[in-house]
Amino acid sequence: MPTLIRWSDGVAHEAPDSFVAVDDDEPMPPGDVIVNMTRFQAEGDRLIGEGRRVGVRVQPNEAVEVLAYDLPRIAVVALVFPKFRDGRAYSAAMLLRTRLAYAGEVRAVGEVLLEQARFMIRCGFDAFEPADHTGAEDWDLAARRYRHVYQRAADTSSPAFQERAGA
Amino acid sequence: MYSYDDIDREMLIDRVAEFRAQCARRLAGEITEEQFKPIRLMNGLYLQLHAYMLRIAIPYGTLSSAQMRTLAHVARTYDRGYGHFTTRTNLQLHWIKLRDAPQILDDLATVGLHAIQTSGNCIRNLTADPLAGVAADEVDDPRIWAEAIRQWSTFHPEFSYLPRKFKIAVTAARRDRAATRIYDIGLRLHRAESGELAFEVLVGGGLGRIPYLGPTVRQSLPARHLLSYLQAILRVYNRHGRRDNIHKARIKVLVASLGAEEFTRQVEEEWDRTDKALVDLPDLELARIRANFAPSGFATLAPASAAFESAKAADHAFARFARNNIVAHKTPGYCAINISLKVPGETPGDCSAEQMDLVADLADRYSLDEIRVAYEQNLILPHVRLDDAPTVYAALAGAGLATANIGLISDIIACPGLDYCTLANARAIPVAQDIARRFADPDLAERIGELNIKISGCINACGHHHVGHIGILGVDKKGEEFYQLTLGGSGDDDAALGQILGPALPADRVTPAVDQLVQVYLRERRGEERFVETFRRTGLAPFKEAVYADAH
Predict the structure, then answer these.
(1) What are phi and psi of B357, to 5 degrees?
(2) Where are the domains of chain B?
(3) Which residues, in sequence order, are bridge partners of residue B480?
(4) Which residues in chain B have Cβ-Cβ distances shorter than 8 Å to A165?
(5) Which residues of B touch A150 (CB under 8 A)?
(6) What is the DSSP string of B191-253?
(7) Chain A within 8 Å of B526 (Cβ-Cβ)?
(8) Does B76 touch chain A (CB under 8 A)?
(9) Is the pLDDT of residue A167 over 70?
(10) Contact at 8 Å (CB) between B524 and B517?
(11) Do residues B420 and B53 make contact, with C-beta atoms less than 8 angstroms apart?
């Protein structure tokens, strides 16, 4: 089974990935799948009814709010970085976690690089398919490079102003 | 001024450690220049025509003496003994070696300086009114709010990969000395009718290829909600700003294409859904920041100074300096002294390590340990006793720092241009030098009065040419440098974009053309009219006629 990097309880580790990414024109394989938004809207009910876990792949120009009512039954939201410079998925992850209260897996796919590890984790991503051959150890180190943060995000880090207040 | 606590210091230490490891990987060949580029840019390190350039942040233009001495040390040790102050109040060193970069950042960190977010598609170093804490027309010290934004925007996880760079300017005075209408976000603090502090929020101003003056999206935002409102603006921009075309990626294009009204609606809708308490700073933290900017060290003095008045009477040169470079202070018996980095014939904004050291010493002794950098590429000693002004002047004069031309025709803004920059189409510095030499006679310059010339070496407009009373833009015509002149721009309260005078001129025609424009002004002006006011009354015609007469 292929693996991905998972971030949980403040640690990065390698984990098996049971999901198969399926394109719109591909036949549906058995087991856990990640499909595009349109395919999820057309086939999601049936797929979930078959007892498998289903994830949705969201492109940067698609609004995660569209999924609001489906989120409780979506196992993975895979946010796509077509280029590492395309930062729209950071806002999408923030919205999923802080506004839509999504508790499932938020996965970073596409041009996912080690240098962005910390920002992704802070915005609420908890699974990663790195495109730069980096491993869990690298991600663990990169995620811990800084002792402080200045602002609240979707993680549990206390912002500087809270540390200063002794809270 | 704001002094770093352990948290701020550890942020810098962690940043330098990270960058040191990244540089080592690059120097060892483990990562390519292509992979390294975004990393070095996040640390203000550009690869230019001749060498690496390091852009050091000077947040909202405020420096302590110790910080200025460290800048001098860095310029002397790792560069060629001078630095260049920019229109964004940063300091650029143009001759840096990659292997020195981590050590430079280490040295800077010892005094709370850094190069964080001086490049890249993130929220850049902030600018503020250079007369903060000095000007009588301010309702608050804008740096309190600028510092709050600095912290919030530093390593912001959601907004570090925006469609394009993002610049914010803050003023808290009636008169806009921070050019807030040409910024991605301009913030103007005032007292609302209720008596509480509120921001007028302008979004989508900017120069570059397509210049815009930012429209007001909210007239009166309660100051305590500043950060949550900024988050709403940045989130709308991050999600919907264009990413397909670098020239259309700034927020000004989004605001213009949606229209200010629709853009505002989207921001307000996002803001309404925001849990503001999670984003806005608690009062306790605002109070902590505020305490850092509380005036301290001022003596109780008489408003007038006999020493100052008698020095003016005795020395014409000092009297001229006082007229042009010294401005009033809200504290009786004090003044702010502008230090012009525009010696006619020299490079605008350049400052030698020795000059930086001298300014640091003077600030230490005479200006409550503070220095400001103004976007006009000059320095300011903000808190000098009038009694000490003649002494400070004499020391400045001895170091070539007493040019009495603030706001005058030779106080020219110029970007580094083709002498350094990979983006430039034409040189800017030699043009500035040539014009300044033509108007080096201080009597002539004073007779002409306030006249801002701004020069950019390319359409990116780092020299703010769109908002110069006379703007000069370098263009490339089949490999030859030409210059397009615009008239009537302003970045101040009377903000306006300049109008194109006519066809671009070859380099050797620029200074004569400026001369002709000045002659028209001197002929046409009524009473105390400034150049830009005469232009607005007469329009382009007489100016155009004079410059292009030969072409008929």
Answers:
(1) -60, -40
(2) 6-109, 134-292, 306-398, 419-551
(3) B477
(4) 282, 284-285
(5) 11, 151-152, 154-156
(6) E-TTSSEEEEEEE--B-TTS-BPPPEEEEEEEGGGHHHHHHHHHHHHHHHS--S-GGG-SHHH
(7) no
(8) no
(9) no
(10) no
(11) yes
B161 and A149 within 8 Å at the Cβ level: the answer is: no
Inform me whether the C-beta atom of residue B275 falls under 8 Å from chain A C-beta atoms.
yes
Residue B399: CB atoms within 10 A of its CB come to: 15
How many C-beta atoms surround the C-beta of residue B425 within 10 A?
20
How much is the mean pLDDT over chain B?
A: 95
- Which pLDDT score, from 0 to 100, does residue B421 have? 87
- CA-based nearest residue to B282, from B191, B155, B154, B151: B151
B238/A84 Cβ within 8 A: no
Give me the CATH code for the B306-398 domain, please.
Answer: 3.90.480.20
Q: How far is it, in rounded angstroms, from Cα B212 to Cα A24?
A: 43
**Mind listing the pLDDT tens digit for each residue in B507-544?**
999 999 999 999 999 999 999 999 999 999 999 999 99
Do the Cβ atoms of A118 and B157 come within 8 Å?
yes
Query: B81 and chain A: CB distance < 8 Å anywhere?
Result: no
The 3-state DSSP class for residue B353 equals helix
Contact A151 B273 (CB under 8 A): no
Domains B134-292 and B419-551 share a fold: yes
Q: Tell me the DSSP string of B42-64.
A: HTTEEE-SSSEEEEEB-GGGEEE
Structure tokens at B59: 């947040």
Homologous superfamily in CATH for domain B419-551: Sulfite Reductase Hemoprotein, domain 1 (3.30.413.10)
Contacts of B246 in chain A (CB under 8 A): none
**Among residues 199-258 of chain B, which lie with CB inside 8 Å of chain A?**
227, 235, 238-239, 243
Chain B CB contacts of A156 below 8 Å: none
B45 is written with which tokens?
A: 């390190």
Task: List domains and CATH numbers for chain A.
Answer: 3-164 (3.20.20.70)
Q: What is the pLDDT of residue B42?
A: 85
Any chain A CB within 8 A of the CB of B272?
Answer: no
Nearest to B55 by CA among B88, B33, B25: B88
Give the model confidence (pLDDT) of B132-148 as tens digits: 999 999 999 999 999 99
CB contact burial B86-95 (16+ within 10 A = b; e otherwise):
bbbbbbbbbb
Inform me whether the C-beta atom of residue A133 falls under 8 Å from chain B C-beta atoms.
no
Which tens digits make up the pLDDT trace of B16-60? 999 999 899 888 988 888 878 888 888 899 988 788 999 999 999
Q: Rounded distance, CA B543 to CA B514, Å?
A: 10
Class of domain B6-109: alpha beta
**Is the Cα torsion angle A61, A63, A66, A69 positive or negative in sign?**
positive
- B248-271 pLDDT per residue, tens: 999 999 999 999 999 999 999 999
Residue B30 in contact with partner chain A when CB distance is under 8 A: no
Q: DSSP labels for B132-157?
A: TTT-TTBSS-HHHHHHHHHHHHTT-S
**Residue range A7-59, pLDDT digits in tens:** 999 999 999 999 999 999 999 999 999 999 999 999 999 999 999 999 999 99
What ipTM does the predicted assembly reach?
A: 0.97
User: pTM of the entire structure?
Assistant: 0.95
**Scanning every residue of chain B, which has its alpha carbon at the shortest distance from the alpha carbon of A64?**
B239
Count contacts between A and B (CB, < 8 Å): 93
pLDDT confidence band for B491 (50 / 70 / 90)? confident
CB atoms closer than 10 angstroms to residue B543: 27
Read off the pLDDT of residues A98-152 as tens digits, 9 standing for 90 and up. Answer: 999 999 999 999 999 998 999 999 999 999 999 988 999 999 999 999 999 999 9
Q: Which CATH architecture has domain B134-292?
A: 2-Layer Sandwich (3.30)
